[in-house]
Amino acid sequence: MASMINFGIDLGTSNSLIARFDRGQVEVFKNPNGFKETLPSIVGFRKDSILIGDQARTYEERDSKNVKSRFKRKMGTAETFKIKVLGASKSPVELSSYLLKELKTFVHSGEDVDSAVITIPASFDTVQCNATREAGSMAGFKTVVLLQEPIAASLAYANKEKNVDLRNSRWLVYDLGGGTFDVALVRIVEGELTVLDHEGDNYLGGTDFDALIVEKIVVPELERRGSFADLPSQLKSESGRLNQHWIRLLRAAESAKVELSAKTGAEIDLSGPQGLVDDEGALIDGYLNVSRSEFESLIKDRIEETIDMMKRILLRNSLQPGDLKFVLMVGGSTYIPFVRKRVEEILGIAVNTNIDPTSAIAVGAAYFAGTKEKGTVGAQQKNQQVSPLKIKASYPRASRESEEIVSAKVGGDTSGMHYRIMSADGAYDSGLKKLSARIIEVLPLREGAFNLFTLKVFDAQGTPVLLDVDPIQIAQGIVDVAGQMLPEDISLVTDDLSAKDTKLECLFKKNAVLPAVTKKTVEVARTVSQGSDDEILILVVEGPEDRHLSTNKQIGNLRITGKQVTRDLIKGTEIDLRFQMSESRDLTVHAYLNGTGQEFSQVFVPSQRTVSSRRLASEILLLETNILNEVGDAIRKGNLETAEDLERMLKDVRTLAVEAVALTEDDVTDKKFQLEDQKRRLAQGVFALTASKRLDQAKAAYQEARSEVCDLVKDSGNDRERHLVSEIRAREQIFMSSTSPAKIQAAIIDLQRVRWPILLRTPDFLIGMFKHLVDRRASMNDQVQAKQLVENGKRAVAGEAWDDVRQINERLWDLMPAEEQASEELRVYTGIV
Amino acid sequence: MNNTRPAHTIEVYKWHLRALNNLYDIEQKLAAHGNPGNAKRNVEQIKEIFVESTQLFYEDPTGKPFSETTADLEASITGIGTENLTVVEVIKPIVRLGNQTFSRVVQKGIVIVKSQSEGKD
Fold first, then answer.
1. Which pick of A15, A178, A450, A522 has the fewest CB atoms within 10 Å?
2. What ipTM does the predicted assembly reach?
3. Which residues of B touch A521 (CB under 8 A)?
C-alpha cells in the first residue's frame, strides 16, 4: 500500500475537483457522468435521495429550500441549512462531506481513497480549517492535510516550470473563477511557500459576466427588434412567458464569452431553433454579433474591482508592482484576454498564464499530496475480502418494456449505509439513497440495447463496501425475440464493372436481429436519359454474401426507368438507398435520387415474392447455356468427373425449362416459386463445381498480366513503377495460395494500375490506339473536329511528338458516342455501382 | 501533463462534438422553418458519416421525461413546478459513442425542462 497521500482535492466554492499524483505525473479525474473534470459544489435533497453536482444544480434555482450551494463560505460558522424535504438541517461540514464522497467516485482506478490534501482559501481561519478537516473525516478520509489555494496554484506552476527560480521572490495569485474571486500575495519564506496577504469577493465570477451579456446587450437588442412589455421580467420571472429563453440565452452568452477569448467577435442566436415570438406574435429571428470590445466594456467595472483589491494588497505590504515576479492567473475566467490585459496594464508586470486555470489548484494539491505521508491513525484492515452484506437481486434478464423494476434483499447491518445504482452508459444515476433491508428501483432501459447497471454501497464515511453482487444486466428488446433472427445474409446486387459481372454487397448479416434498418449510397453506372427505356435496378437477394446473384434467392426488385425520372440521371449521380426489414421480414426499399430529387419506394413481402414466369424461363435458359459452356470447358481440360456432374445438372435444368415454359404469366399456383427454388439450387451446384476452375482462371490471368507488366516495366518503367511491381510480387504467395478468386483479381487490378501509365508513354501503344480511333472516326460525334484532330495526329506521329499524340487520342476518345465508350469498358446489369 | 492516461479513458475530439452540435441545430431549424431542397437528407448523410467513421451519434431528448435520476441531461428548469418535468428545449443534444447494442454518453444533453403539471405558455 502506498505510504504517500497522493490525492489532492480542490474543494471549491463553485466547483470541486480531484487529482492524483502518480510517479511524477498528476492526473485530474473526470466525472464518470459527463466527463467533466469539475463537480459543481451543490448538494440537493429529494424525498429519498441525495443529488450532488450537475444533477443538484438543475434544481438549485427552483427548489432552493432543498438544494444548497456556496456553503463553503459558511464553513466553521454555527449556521446550518434547513432542508425542507428532510425536515432537518445540514451543516456546511456535512454538505461538504457529500461533495468529498462524490469526488471519491471519480477515482476510476478502484483504489481506496483514504487520505487527501484538501485546499482552502487563504482567508480561512483556524475554525474554518478545522471544519474542513472534519468534513474530510466525515467523508471517510483517515488523513486530511490542508493546503491554501494560492499555494496549491503556485505549486502547480513550480512543478510545471521546474527551471524557474522562485527563491527570494514574491508574486500574486489572481483567482477568478465561475462565481468567486480571490487574490493572494505569495512568497517563499525560509524555503516554504507562504501566503502573506489576501483579498476576495464571494460574488464575482464568470456567471456574472454571462448575465451581463444577456441583460445589457441581448435584451436591448430584442427590445429594438420586437415589441415587448417588460421584457426583463418576462425573461427572468419563473412564471414569465419567456423564462425558457432566459436560460437558453445565458447558455448562448456563456458560449459567446468563451468564443470571445479566442476571436474578436461572436454570434448569439437570438431566437434559438424554436423561435422567440414578441408580444404581438412576430417572430424575432437572426443573430446578434457581440464584439470583443463590447464585452470588455461590459465587464470593465467588475474587473476594475479586482484590480483595486490587488492595489490594496500592494499598498498594505508597501510594495511596488515591480517588486512582484509575476501575477499567476488561476480560475476559468482568467481565460478572458481583457482580464489578463487589464491586470498587465495596471500593474505593468507580466501575467503568468502557464498553468491550466481550471485544474491548477487540484493539480498543485496532488503534487503536495505526493510528498506527504499518510498518518498511521486507523490504518486500513488489509485483505478484508468478505462482504459484510448479503445482497440478492432479482430482475428480468430480458425485457420489452422501457423500464424494469429491480428488487434486492439486503442482509446484514445496513445502518448508516447508502446505496447507489448507476448505468454503465452514463444515462442513469439513482443518487445516494439510504440502504435498508430491501431495495426497489425502477431502472430505465435503452431500446434495443444491452443495459448494464452497477450497484454500489457506501458506509457512513462514503467508503465503498465490498459486495458480492454481479452487475445488473437487462437486454431490452433483444433476447425474447428468438426466431426473429435473419436466417441468411441479405445483399444488394451492384455492377462489378471490372469483372463485367455483378457483385453482392451485404445489407443485413445472417443472425441480425429484426427489425433492422440500413442505408447505402450507390452511384448510377450509366446515364439514364429522361423518357428512355434505360433503367436502374435495385435488386435484393438472400443467401451467402460471398456467392453470386445467380445462386441467391431474389427477394425483391425496384426498377426505376427513364420514363419515371423528371430529368436525366447522369452517370455518377448518387442514389441514397434505405432498407428496412420488419420483424415479419417485409423488406421496404426507399430510393432517393439526388439528381432529380425524386423518391421511390417499394415493400417486398416474402409471402408475395414476385417471380415473373417469363423471366424465370429466360433465367433457366441462361443457366442451361452456362452449364453447356462449362461442360465443354471441363471436357477440353480433361476434368471428366466434373463434366459428368455438370451433365447431370444439365438434365435437371432442361426438365425445369420445360416446366417453366409451360407456366402462364398469371399462374396463381406456387409452382413458379418451386421452380425458382430448384433453379437456384442448381445454380449453387454449378457455382460450387466450377469454383476451382474460376480459381485456376484467375491464377492464369494473373500470370499473364504479371509477365506482360514485368516486361513493360523492364523496358519502359521508372523506379516507382518497378517498386510497385516488386511490392505486388512480394504478396504473391499469399493471394495465390488463397481460395478466393477475388483476391487474385485484386492483384491483377493492381498490376493494371502500373501498366496503364507506362503504356501511355509507349510510342507503339499510342500509335496503335490512334489507328484504332481513326478507324472509328465515322461514328464520332463531331465530324469536323474529328477530321481536324486526325490530321493533327498524323503530323504528331510523323514528328514523334508523343505527348501531342496522347492528348489527341484523349480528345478523339471523348468524341466517341457514349454507348461505344461503355461497350468497350463495361456491361451494365443493375445500372448501379 | 497527463501522458499516462488510464486505458479505459474515452477520448473524443472536441471538434467532432462541435460539428455534431451544429448539425443538430441545423436539423432543428430545418424542422421548424421548412426543409428547402430536401436539405434534411444531407443532414442524415452527415450523421451517417459520423456513425461510420467515429461511432458517434446524437439523440434528441425533446419530450423526454427528466427526473433527478436522469444522468445524461444537464437541465435548467423553466416555470415554477419541479415535478413531472419533461424536456421542452434542447440546447445541446446527447452525444453517444458506440453502437445500437451498447453505447455510452460522451456529451450530456443540455436542456431546458418544464413541469407538465403547469399550463403551457
1. A450
2. 0.73
3. 45
- State in Å, rounded, how far the first CA of chain A is from the last one: 63
Contact list, A54 vs chain B (CB under 8 Å) = 74, 108
Residue located via cell numbers 484532330: A789
Q: How many CB atoms lie within 10 A of CB A168?
A: 9
Is residue B46 less than 8 Å (CB to CB) from chain A? no
Interior angle at CA A660, CA A642 and CA A494, nearest 5: 70
Which of left, alpha, beta for A524 (phi over 0: left; psi -120 to 50: alpha)? Answer: beta
The pLDDT assigned to A74 comes to 79
Distance from CA of A660 to the nearest CA of B (A): 44
Give me the residues of A, 31-50, that contact B with CB < 8 A.
Answer: 33-35, 44, 46, 49
Interface membership of A247 toward B (CB under 8 Å): yes
d(CA A643, CA A635): 6
The DSSP output letter for B36 is G
CB atoms within 10 A of CB B33: 12
Strand ranges in A367-437 using DSSP code E only, listed in sequence order: 390-394, 398-399, 403-411, 418-423, 433-434
Domain tally for chain B? 1
Q: Tell me if B2 is assigned to some domain.
A: no
Q: Is residue B93 part of a domain?
A: yes
- B74 lies in a domain? yes
Question: B59 — contact with chain A (CB < 8 Å)?
Answer: no
DSSP states of A195-231: EEEEEEETT-SHHHHHHHHIIIIIHHHHHHHS--SSH
Judge whether A298 and A216 are in contact, CB under 8 Å: yes
Minimal Cα–Cα distance from A239 to chain B, Å?
A: 5
Task: Single out the residue of A535, A533, A504, A532 nearest to residue A520, CA to CA.
Answer: A504
C-alpha cell at A324: 512582484
Tell me if the pTM is above 0.80. Answer: no
A424 and B104 within 8 Å at the Cβ level: the answer is: yes
Record the cell numbers describing residue A164, joined without a space.
524557474
Task: Give the Cα separation of A764 and A807 in Å (integer).
Answer: 15
DSSP string, A777-802: GGG-S-HHHHHHHHHHHHHHHHTT-H
Q: What CA–CA distance (Å, rounded) separates A633 from A626? A: 11
Question: Does B100 sit within 8 Å of A244, measured CB to CB?
Answer: no
What is the domain range of residue B76?
14-115
**How many alpha carbons fall within 13 Å on the CB side of residue A593?**
27
- Alpha-carbon distance A87 to A72, whole Å? 22
What average pLDDT does this structure show over A171-176? 93
The three cell numbers of residue A412 are: 446484514
Partners of A238 on chain B (C-beta within 8 Å) are 78-80
Residues within 8 A of B (CB atoms), A 427-486 only:
427-431, 444, 448-450, 452, 478
Which chain B residues in 97-116 lie under 8 Å from chain A, judged by CB atoms?
98, 100-108, 110, 112-114
Query: How many CB atoms are closer than 10 A to CB A268?
Result: 20
Q: Mind listing the pLDDT tens digit for each residue in A382-432?
A: 444 577 888 888 888 777 788 889 999 998 888 889 999 999 888 999 988
pLDDT digits (tens, 9 = 90+) for B62-99: 999 998 889 999 998 888 888 899 999 999 999 999 88
Contacts of B33 (CB under 8 A, 6+ apart): none
Q: Which amino acid is residue A667, in one-letter code? A: D
The minimal CB distance from B101 to the residues A252, A429, A450 is found for A450
The sheet with strand A170-176 has its strands ordered as: A192-201, A181-189, A170-176, A324-330, A351-352
Strand partners, A68: A43
Query: Chain B within 8 Å of A108 (Cβ-Cβ)?
Result: yes
Residues A599-641 pLDDT 10s: 888 777 554 455 667 777 877 888 888 888 888 888 888 888 8
